[in-house]
Backbone:
């Protein structure tokens, strides 16, 4: 089959550098590939990013979905030449000072974050973080919008409104909630011993509200909730099929968290992890920072996306927007939003973000 006409596959992978190599093109043209996640190592400046995303989108049709972890604060992959997005906690602090103003700040923040990515060919960011800050998780910390799930829901809906205005969907994470566990799932296997009723009353509130608002994607946590299932949420049919799809009515894309993370090791080797995540209900699986594992999957995994999953994934492509930063700076809507974002968390006498 001509790679130019391949349907998208279930695997989201990464690349080594700032331009595509022969090995990158081989992997991206593989039938299992469906998306690519970019990291800071893939970025040097806005012009280079536009060239890279253009090359990725040209590999095949329909084009691969290009994603990035670009939340703001500690988790922002593209920095030089992009607006410095404040930690999401700053929106929570604004909420405490006045809910209406905080909602508007969240809309403007979502718009700036998303429109800059779209102007450079990136389809989506894995955001917003919907985790409740229970004061336990260092890996979440100020990535969480607030400790009040209802405030999180309102602010995240506003962020997503800004995303939509920029032509981008959102991906809520980490379902059903990573904020209650101290362990970091990148290097440990976190266990959350709360009952389902306790989780439903708090951590599920933002996910339910964002599902109702039409969020396009959800990413489950590599966390075990033993009162519900012995498997981490990303490998759990109970969490993904019964709760997320059934109880909450979610109809978008379920993206696994990175299967190279330590907390995913409970499912076995990379092929076993992939099969477990797909069987549990993930539409797309992520394998990052491990090209050998990616090649192993491409040689062993036997899976193609269902028609339903293909439709879901097609909706994650961003709406066309070209011209890069030069064109954006001519957009009055962007300039107004930039000014609003620049004032978030600032005190008298301090320089605004991006100054």
Residues:
């Amino acid at each position: 089959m001509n790679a130019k006409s391949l349907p998208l596959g279930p695997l989201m992978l990464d690349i080594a550098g700032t331009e595509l190599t022969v090995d990158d093109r081989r992997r991206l043209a593989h039938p299992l590939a469906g998306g690519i996640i970019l990291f800071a190592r893939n970025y040097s400046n806005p012009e280079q990013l536009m060239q890279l995303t253009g090359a990725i989108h040209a590999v095949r049709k329909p084009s691969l979905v290009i994603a990035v972890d670009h939340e703001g604060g500690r988790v922002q992959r593209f920095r030089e030449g992009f607006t410095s997005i404040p930690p999401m906690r700053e929106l929570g602090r604004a909420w405490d000072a006045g809910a209406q103003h905080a909602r508007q700040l969240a809309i403007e923040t979502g718009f700036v974050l998303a429109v800059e990515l779209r102007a450079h060919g990136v389809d989506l960011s894995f955001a917003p973080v919907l985790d409740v800050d229970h004061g336990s998780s260092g890996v979440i910390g100020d990535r969480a919008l607030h400790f009040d799930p209802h405030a999180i829901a309102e602010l995240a809906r506003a962020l997503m409104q800004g995303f939509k205005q920029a032509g981008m969907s959102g991906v809520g994470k980490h379902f059903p909630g990573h904020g209650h566990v101290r362990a970091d799932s990148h290097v440990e296997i976190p266990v959350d011993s709360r009952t389902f009723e306790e989780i439903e009353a708090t951590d599920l509130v933002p996910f339910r509200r964002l599902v109702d608002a039409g969020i396009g994607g959800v990413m489950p946590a590599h966390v075990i909730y033993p009162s519900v299932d012995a498997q981490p949420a990303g490998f759990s049919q109970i969490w993904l099929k019964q709760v997320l799809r059934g109880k909450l009515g979610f109809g978008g894309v379920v993206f696994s968290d990175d299967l190279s993370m330590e907390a995913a090791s409970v499912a076995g080797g990379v092929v076993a992890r992939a099969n477990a995540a797909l069987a549990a209900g993930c539409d797309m699986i992520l394998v990052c920072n491990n090209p050998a594992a990616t090649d192993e999957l491409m040689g062993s995994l036997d899976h193609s996306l269902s028609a339903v999953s293909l439709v879901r994934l097609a909706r994650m492509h961003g709406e066309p927007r070209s011209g890069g930063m030069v064109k954006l700076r001519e957009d009055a809507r962007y300039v107004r939003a930039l000014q609003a974002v620049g004032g978030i968390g600032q005190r008298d006498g301090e320089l605004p973000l991006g100054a």
Summary: The first helix runs from residue 22 to 28. Strands lie at 11-13, 33-38, 65-68, 70-72, 75-76, 124-125, 171-175, 217-220, 253-258, 284-286. Residues 347-355 have pLDDT under 50 and may be disordered. The radius of gyration is 19 Å.
